[in-house]
C-alpha cells in the first residue's frame, strides 16, 4: 500500500488544513516511509513472543491503606493563609 498526493489532499480537506504543494509532497514521502517501516515490522517472526500490553511489568508503588487519625484542626489552620470560624477562608472565585 502506498499513499498518494490525492490521499494527503483528502485527509487535509477532512482536517480543514490548507497545504502547499511542497507540504503535500513532503507528507506523502513521510507517510510512505512510515508504511515502508511498518512493512518491515510485519516480516519479523513473532511466533514465540507472548502478547503484552506493557513492555515492562507494572508494579504498584503505593503503600497499603491504613487507618490513622487525622491532624487536629488547629494544626491544619496554622498552614492556612486565612481562617474564619474554624474553616480555611479562600478568595471568592465568583463575582
UniProtKB/TrEMBL annotation:
InterPro entries, per the entry: Asp/Glu-ADT_sf_sub_c, GatC
Keywords, alphabetical: ATP-binding, Ligase, Nucleotide-binding, Protein biosynthesis
Known EC number: 6.3.5.-
The UniProt record lists the keyword Nucleotide-binding: yes
Record-linked Gene3D superfamilies: Glu-tRNAGln amidotransferase C subunit, N-terminal domain (1.10.20.60)
Functional note: Allows the formation of correctly charged Asn-tRNA(Asn) or Gln-tRNA(Gln) through the transamidation of misacylated Asp-tRNA(Asn) or Glu-tRNA(Gln) in organisms which lack either or both of asparaginyl-tRNA or glutaminyl-tRNA synthetases. The reaction takes place in the presence of glutamine and ATP through an activated phospho-Asp-tRNA(Asn) or phospho-Glu-tRNA(Gln).
Name of the protein in its database record: Aspartyl/glutamyl-tRNA(Asn/Gln) amidotransferase subunit C
Species whose genome carries this gene: Paenibacillus oleatilyticus
Encoding gene, per UniProt annotation: gatC
